[in-house]
Structure formats: structure tokens, C-alpha cells
Specification:
This protein has 95 residues and is an alpha+beta fold. It has three helices and four strands; from the N terminus they run E-H-E-E-H-H-E. It has a four-stranded antiparallel beta sheet with strand order 2-3-1-4. The protein starts with a strand and ends with a strand.
Length: 95
């Protein structure tokens, strides 16, 4: 089953977060992921608002989780730590 990687982000350091974004995309692609929404328009209906929302699709929940724990993604994530407040979840689709 495909899975969605859903991140809700508030960026606190644009420069450092830019370094994260530059490295994160190739890390996701290496694990079969691709972005389907990235910092696009949105409407917050419930819960805590984050001005940046990202959705990536992976071939499986396992592929998305492997990506998260990969050396490449963790190197990217080093730039996001301290430069953002993030919530991240991986959810399997019903397709």
C-alpha cells in the first residue's frame, strides 16, 4: 500500500531550513518518494496552524520510514532541527 508522509512546519530560521529543503528532496526521491504538496495554499480548519504543509507519497509505509531513518535524510534533518517546529506523520493510504 502507498503511504503519505505529512509534515506541518513552522520555520523559525529560513536560511537553515533552506539547507534542509535542498537535501531532503533527493533523500525522499532515493527512497521512492515524491512531493504531491509542498508549501501550497491551505485552509486550517482545526488544530494548531503551521504555515508550511508538505505531503509526499511513497510506495509503502516501510519505504517512508526507511527514508526518515536514512543517513541522507538525517543529514538533511540536522539543518531543520532548531530551525523549525515540525509535526510529521506517515499514514498508509487505502488505495
Amino acid at each position: 500500500m502507498p503511504a503519505l508522509w505529512i509534515a506541518h512546519v513552522t520555520v523559525t530560521d529560513e536560511e537553515a531550513y533552506g539547507r534542509y529543503a535542498k537535501l531532503a528532496g533527493p533523500a525522499l526521491e532515493k527512497h521512492g518518494g515524491h512531493f504531491i504538496a509542498r508549501a501550497a495554499r491551505y485552509v486550517q480548519l482545526e488544530g494548531r496552524d503551521h504555515p508550511r504543509n508538505v505531503v509526499a507519497k511513497f510506495p509503502s509505509l516501510e519505504a517512508a520510514e526507511t527514508c526518515y531513518h536514512s543517513e541522507e535524510y538525517q543529514a538533511a534533518l540536522d539543518h531543520a532541527r532548531g530551525a523549525s517546529e515540525r509535526d510529521l506523520v506517515i499514514v498508509e493510504t487505502t488505495e
